[in-house]
Amino acid sequence: METSSQDDPFARLERQNAALSTLAQHPDLFINGPLAFAQRVTESATATLGVARSSVWFFTDNLRAIHCEDLFELDAGRHSEGAEFSSAQYPKYFAALTEGRSIAAHNALIDPRTAEFARAYLRPVGISSMLDAPIRMGGRLVGVLCNEHIGPQREWMPDEEAFAGSLCDILALGLEAWEHQKMAAELREARDHLELRVAERTRELAAANERLQELDRLKSTFLATMSHELRTPLNSIIGFTGILRKGLPGPINAEQEKQLSMVHGAAKHLLALINDLLDVSRIESGKTDIHCTKFRFAEMVNEVAAQLEPLCGPKNLRFRVVVTDPAIEVISDRKKCFQVLLNLAANAVKFTERGQVAVEVEHAGGTLSVSVTDTGIGIRPEKMDRLFTAFGQIDGTSQRTQDGTGLGLYLCRQLLNLLGGEIRAESTFGIGSCFTFKLPIQHTAPSDS
Amino acid sequence: MSARILLVEDNEQNRYLATFLLESAGFSVFHAPDGPTAIEYATKERPDIILMDIQLPHMDGYETATRIRSTPGLESTPLVAVTSYAMPGDRERAMGLGFSGYIEKPIDTDTFVSSVAWHLGGKETRK
Predict the structure, then answer these.
(1) B4: which of A119, A240, A382, B116 is 20 to 30 A away, CA to CA?
(2) pLDDT at residue A5 above 80?
(3) Distance in Å, alpha carbon of B11 to nearest chain A alpha carbon
(4) What is the pTM of this model?
């Protein structure tokens, strides 16, 4: 029997260690992949063990077959692959393999684990001895490294068995590292892809945002232009009817005065509509500034009363103001408070033919409560929920019976929102209405720095 | 002698309306249709007050106001915008560029003359 022990066992161990060290640092695995690495393993096995053929096989079909990934023939210096053996053909060999230990067959032709190959394979090739070591990945049997000796049979040394086992370990570690690298690359790719998608979406959103801003600019420009263009003819209509009614160009008769006052009223209405629309647009686009000052609320209420009293006279309406604490001072936007109260009180006067309109102001805690009560026509219950919406007077079914822009109460609510307040309405149809708004005595909106 | 008013207005109806009201109140009014002419007349005629639209041909009211203010002798002449610009910031912009008053169109026939008189201040001399 031939052994490899003819050479110095220390020199052999040194060779084995050198081979393992070279493989462990071999760059092929990460450059050219697992097949190239398997080829380096089989080359190293033939050279170090001094065998004619080394091959790497992997299990397929649930351990029922093995497939040759690489066979290296030392003399020919040739790699090949593709052979397959099944457990049905070679049951004893497979049984030995699945035990998971090395198969060191000194005489492969008669060894019970390998004798199955004798006729079909060992004899034709001239193989006498086989050293097969199992390849495990993560403790699981995945393949086998076969070393085949041609010529006189050979005795495998324990260090050679161990070396074959180490080659398998290196191969397995290499494959695992390759898998990890592949997964890492896939993860990187997925992450890069995700980043690209995020960047793309960000660009899309930025573009959409830009379009919205452009639309907002267009809307503002449109409103400014319309406001300007509508005011120019209104200047003539309101101006010249005003002059005619004053009698400046000459006296007019009662009928002419009546008709001119209608033109004048209609033009003023149109102007109010334009102004309200601008207000609504400003509020809705968040461009309304709040200018807070400290002022006596009672004085402001009296100004509203003074402005409306001339309208009460002809209808013999009583306009009553009750302020429980006339000295009470509030910190809020005076102009906007005035606008809200004037709107509510003017509505009350407009919709009341007899009786009275009362503005009552009281306060509790940090809140001012202002109510405007009238003895007017009241509001139909079915209209209550549309009261504070834009153009709430128009419901599509009934005709409008009163003048007004239809934006007054909507504006009141929006303005009160800005001032940190709220508004509600109660009404009995035919008896009268009561609008109550609450307002913080000290306005503290975050927008008002 | 009545106060002399330079009215800078390109729209014929607006010009007629303001002139009618002011002349009815005894003021003397003369016209410029655009900014450059306004500067020329103002320099030559030294009006007691200038009423000026903002949207004007050739040179807008803002630019005209700036130039009027830098003209020797016109630094403190009352200069009132009479304009259809009613968007937020319009008034502030005008006041920042040298206008001393701002009347929004449509003008109120009941208050227009008294507003102009108020801006004339001490210089007001009426028939």
Answers:
(1) A240
(2) no
(3) 9
(4) 0.56
